[in-house]
Amino acid sequence: MKRRTFLMTGAAATLALPVAADTAPLLKVLKTPTCGCCSAWIDHVRQAGFAVEAQDVDQDQLWAFKERLQISPELAGCHTALLGDYFIEGHVPAADITRLLAEQPVARGLTVPGMPMSSPGMGGPGAGDAFDTLLVGSDGVTSVFASHS
């Protein structure tokens, strides 16, 4: 490769980096300020290429937000995120979020109810029991979107 081609390629790649960061899918996360597993989950999705805006709120504000989104207590996790028109509730793996964006199903969002020990942010694979990511349809009915062991 010629020196000029090499330098031009390097310059073009450097110029492309800010654009790529600007186009990363944005997750707007509401969480309580003392929840370490929420912060670990945020690290997980950032490592997968998502941009994150996290906002610390008190528990009452977080539950009021879940109510507005019609996330029932049995579907709730410890944090709630918005991604475009979808909600992402709890410790949903980044791969499932990527799949959601690729498939664009008619749905309200994804949830991993509770706090399964093997989910991202809670210890990762092998740390606990298998869990499912649920797709919450427009009518509120859930179906298994992905199973994780």
Mind explaining what this structure looks like?
The chain contains 4 helices and 7 strands. With 149 residues, it is of the alpha/beta class. The protein has one domain (27-148). A 7-stranded mixed sheet has the order 2-1-3-4-5-6-7. The N and C termini lie far apart (47 Å).
Largest sheet: 7 strands, mixed
Which regions contain 5 or more consecutive residues with pLDDT less than 50? 1-21
Mean pLDDT: 86
Radius of gyration: 18 Å
What is the β-strand count?
Answer: 7
Structural class: alpha/beta
Fraction in beta strands: 25-35%
Overall 3D form: globular
The first-to-last residue Cα distance is 47 Å
- Number of folding domains? 1
Please give a quick description of this structure:
The chain has 4 helices and 7 strands; from the N terminus they run αβαβαββαβββ. It is α/β, with parallel strands linked by helices and 149 residues long. The model is unreliable at 1-21 (pLDDT under 50).
Topology:
Blueprint: H1 3-22, E1 26-31, H2 36-47, E2 51-56, H3 59-68, E3 80-83, E4 86-90, H4 94-103, E5 107-112, E6 131-137, E7 142-148
Parallel strand pairs: 1-2, 4-5
Antiparallel strand pairs: 1-3, 3-4, 5-6, 6-7
Key attributes of the depicted protein:
149 residues, alpha/beta, 7-stranded mixed beta sheet, 4 helices, 28% strand, globular
